[in-house]
Design the sequence.
């Protein structure tokens, strides 16, 4: 079983709509979680950290559910520029600073 | 802004060749990482380094070695390239302390081994 699992998508979203997707993690000892964004043929870039209480950054909202071991990302008022692959990331419990990446969820925003 | 650079965007090598991938970061980060990224598998950690001359194996170190002689530079070496090492290689760096988990990536090197 992969340590971080994501629905690969693609999620096809009309411009202006809301899209949400989850990822699950298997190691209950993981403490820190992140969402990275990766554009086609580009490097991953940090989108946001995920805090226990949930956090919001503009149109993006991240939630952490430790009991069920999943992380969610919600994008409101989708823009064409939101089209990307979103990588769910958990900090490894065995070694600080090391990250476990999911394979990514592809989002395609259409006009 | 943190800048992580990699020596090549695209490389084509032949089976059995020795391949060097170079990574340089300009933010005085202690930690550096090498990943490979393959479709459906996500990023997999090959090697990482917490300090100069220090290196530790990641999840898939077989067929690879690394070198970190200077803090800003982390090199990945394929001793004898094989076709199953065709992949996108990504270097990353991070600092220690409060934001130690935030990794900054280079643009990647797409390596093809024929």
Sequence:
């Amino acid at each position: 079983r992969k340590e971080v699992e994501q629905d690969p998508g693609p999620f096809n979203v009309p411009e202006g709509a809301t899209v949400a997707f989850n990822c699950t993690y298997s190691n209950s000892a993981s403490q820190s979680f992140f969402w990275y964004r990766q554009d086609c043929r580009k490097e991953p870039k940090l989108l946001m950290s995920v805090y226990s209480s949930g956090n919001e950054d503009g149109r993006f909202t991240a939630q952490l559910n430790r009991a069920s071991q999943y992380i969610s990302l919600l994008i409101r008022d989708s823009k064409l520029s939101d089209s990307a692959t979103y990588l769910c990331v958990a900090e490894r419990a065995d070694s600080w600073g090391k990250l476990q990446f999911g394979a990514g969820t592809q989002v395609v925003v259409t006009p | 802004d943190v800048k992580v650079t990699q020596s090549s965007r695209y490389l084509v090598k032949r089976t059995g060749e020795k391949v060097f991938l170079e990574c340089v970061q300009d933010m005085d980060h202690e930690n550096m990482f090498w990943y490979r990224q393959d479709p459906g598998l996500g990023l997999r950690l090959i090697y990482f380094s917490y300090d100069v001359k220090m290196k530790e194996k990641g999840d898939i170190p077989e067929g690879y070695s690394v070198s970190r002689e200077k803090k800003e530079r982390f090199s990945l070496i394929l001793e004898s390239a094989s076709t199953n090492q065709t992949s996108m290689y990504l270097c990353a760096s991070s600092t220690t302390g409060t934001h130690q988990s935030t990794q900054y990536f280079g643009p990647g090197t797409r390596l093809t081994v024929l």
The first strand of chain B starts at residue 4 and ends at 6. DSSP finds no helices and eleven strands in chain B. Residues 19 and 55 of chain B are 19 Å apart (CA to CA).
